Each structure stands twice: as C-alpha cells, then as structure tokens.
Amino acid sequence: xxxxxxxxxxxxxxxxxxxxxxxxxxxxxxxxxxxxxxxxxxxxxxxxxxxxxxxxxxxxxxxxxxxxxxxxxxxxxxxxxxxxxxxxxxxxxxxxxxxxxxxxxxxxxxxxxxxxxxxxxxxxxxxxxxxxxxxxxxxxxxxxxxxxxxxxxxxxxxxxxxxxxxxxxxxxxxxxxxxxxxxxxxxxxxxxxxxxxxxxxxxxxxxxxxxxxxxxxxxxxxxxxxxxxxxxxxxxxxxxxxxxxxxxxxxxxxxxxxxxxxxxxxxxxxxxxxxxxxxxxxxxxxxxxxxxxxxxxxxxxxxxxxxxxxxxxxxxxxxxxxxxxxxxxxxxxxxxxxxxxxxxxxxxxxxxxxxxxxxxxxxxxxxxxxxxxxxxxxxxxxxxxxxxxxxxxxxxxxxxxxxxxxxxxxxxxxxxxxxxxxxxxxxxxxxxxxxxxxxxxxxxxxxxxxxxxxxxxxxxxxxxxxxxxxxxxxxxx
Length: 477
What we know:
- This protein has helices at 15-22, 79-89, 110-116, 161-172, 190-194, 208-223, 244-254, 301-312, 315-333, 372-379, 390-400, 451-468; strands spanning 5-10, 28-32, 43-57, 60-65, 72-74, 103-108, 132-144, 149-154, 201-204, 229-239, 259-265, 268-274, 277-282, 285-288, 291-296, 342-351, 355-365, 387-388, 411-416, 421-424, 429-433, 436-445, 472-474.
- By secondary structure, the protein is of the alpha+beta class.
- The longest helix is centred in the last third of the chain and has 19 residues, at 315-333.
- It has a 23-stranded mixed sheet that branches.
- The protein has a single domain, classed as Anthranilate synthase (4-Layer Sandwich), CATH 3.60.120.10.
- Helix 7 crosses helix 12.
- A hairpin with a 4-residue loop joins strand 7 (132-144) and strand 8 (149-154).
- It is 29% helix and 33% strand.
C-alpha cells in the first residue's frame, strides 16, 4: 500500500480560476462541478505533473512514462486489463472525506464501446482522436465547492510528495485568497450570456428531413421487434474562431452542470457541461443515473412550470426512462451481488439553465472480487445513449447515423488508486480540433416519438452550446 502526502487548505477561489493558473502544457484535465445548486456538484479536480499517460488509438494500446516524450506500443494487454494492473500496482488507502486523492483521469470514447461489442464502424469520421486517453498524475488538487475546503496530494512518483506539494503551494499562495472573477486571458461576452448570436456558422451532418427520415426508419425497426428504444444523434460542425479556454469559460457560465470537464490532450480539446452521471463506484457501492426525457425551460414562470408539468406527466418519456432503467439493472447484475440492485429514484425532475430532465437512480453492490474497472467494462457505453437491447440498438445506430460519435456519448472521469471511480456521460459537449468545432446532439427514440418534435428537442439541448461558440446554425431542409 503506497503512502500519499496530503496538504489541506481553504479558499473562496473558483476552482476553474485555480486551474487556469496551474494547467499543465500537455495532458491537461479538469473535472469541474460547476452547478452549485446540485446535490452532485461538489468536488472539482485538477491533475498536475503527469507520470504516466496511456491511450488507445486505432485499437492499439500505447503508454508514455515521464519524462519520456513519446508513446510506446503495448501489444499484450487490452485497456481494461492494463488499468487493473496499474491500479493494483499503485494501491492507496483514502482516509480523507474527499472522493479522489490519486489515480488516473481521462475518457473512453463511444468508438471504444463499439469495439467492446465488435460493432463494425460504417459512418464516416469527421475527425479522429484516440478511442481512450488516461493520465495518471503525481499531484491532485481537489476542492469541495460547498465547504471551500481543498486538498493537494502527492504520490511521490516524480518527486517526494511533501516537496511537490510545497512547490504547488508556492505557485498558488500569491492569488489563493484574492477575489479573482475571470481566468487569465479569457473574457466572457456579456452579449453571449444574454443570447446574442454572432460569428461562426454551424451545419448539421443531417438535413432536417434526413434526421426525421432516420427516426422513421428506427421506428420501423421497433415495429418489427428489433429494439424498444434507441438514441439518435446528429453532429453540428463548423469553424471555431475562439480559444478552447474561452469557449469552456462561456459554456460553464451559461450552462453550469454537475459533471463538467475541460480536457486539453494531444491535438484537441473538449469542453463538456454534462448533467449526467454514468457510473460511480465508492467502497464497492455502485450508482448510475440515466437521463431520459427533456423539455425546454419556459420564458416566463408560468410557462416554465407548465413545461415542467408536461415532462412530469409524459407517458412517453417515463416509458423510455423505464426501459433504460431495466437495461441498467441488467448490466449491473453482471457485476453486482444478488438482490443488491435497486432503484431508489425512478422519475425525478432535475432543473438546468435551459432544460428540465427526467432522471432515475439505480444502485448496487459489487461482488467482492469485482473492481471498478470490471464494473465500467460491464456497463459501458451507458444505456441512456445507446438503447435497448443495447447491442442491437448500437448496430442500428451505426446504420442510421451518418457520422461517427467519437467522444460524444462516451465517458469522462477517474479511476482512483483506492479502488473508487466516477464517470459522466459525454453530452452537452464541444470538441475543438484544427480550428473546427464539433458537437453532437441527440435524443431517445421510442415508437411513440414524433420525428419533428425529436429534431426540435436536439436544438433545445444544443442551445447553450451554440451560445458558447457565438454560432449561428444553418439547418438544411
């Protein structure tokens, strides 16, 4: 069992401001609980001083051990076996009240999920990124956004833990208690916050009619008994004239969310403001919180309440969510003890800046011999963004969607060296690569779905993403 050095502090500084002052030049990840009024928005995490990076690219596994600059091919393990080996070799005991004090932070893309089920890619790729990317950091800063308490931790991989913590303290002390409101070199346009669209023009991979036709084809598969529910996605893309830091700062300001993240890896960046937890494992206890059902917020209090009641009483959305809950229960049963899988929340309404969501909670307890990695592998990709039955839904998705999803509907989060983990579903996200922005939006389709309404729902979900990019949207009919 390895020893972790720990230093505690208190600060009123926004964790994102702290991140912008400390962000490493490469392999930079910030897990951001930016929605202050959410039960699930509590801890924000900054990774510093990478000692190991691992990625999967074109189905092959690579690792980079610092200070080496290049990746080396590893041919004898898959990513999940590799993860279990690294976590086992670096075990720690977390005696703090904080959920994460050391481990790996990163993502698994939807494309990796397809590989797990041997689903052949058919849709064209608008861009390419690794299917998986994880960074193991020597130092972690984690902040409790409710109590304003924080920790700096040191694993002692690159330098003695106490020394590395002292060096970080010296960097952050000059501004720790200052009332800094804006990150360096980033300015939020107040016009954007108010809703004025300017600058870039985004285009969908579907025409409006093409998206609705694809939904009709999906409904035919349901009529023939192939699937009960599936998620249908289209991707908007166009030039990005801003830095990724600026885009993320805008996004977290206008669309705060409990499972947000900013990643700057290889030659791309991801700005994510996800409302959805995919999977959390804590002391062998598992929680997943699928979202199914969305309505826009109303422009007046009366209309807002009316829309909320519309979702609360929607038979279609409740049926859709119930099918996904059953799928998640089945997935968890593969790795959880008999009779331990429960549904403590079935149809909960959650409020966000531009939409209401219908959410359920499914819990379970892992078998003693199962790990967080085993649990993730057994349940990925999340049922809320695939469908039921999962494999057939993913096959139909691959047939009907006309571009690959890449990181969209994958998962971002961490595996702790203490055996715990927490991951989101990558929705409400913008990927920036080679001065182009890409954002996927979609929704769950059932036989009762109205194609025109489903298309409009995707625009409602993407509204704040368009605002963050200062983008107008071109919809071909």
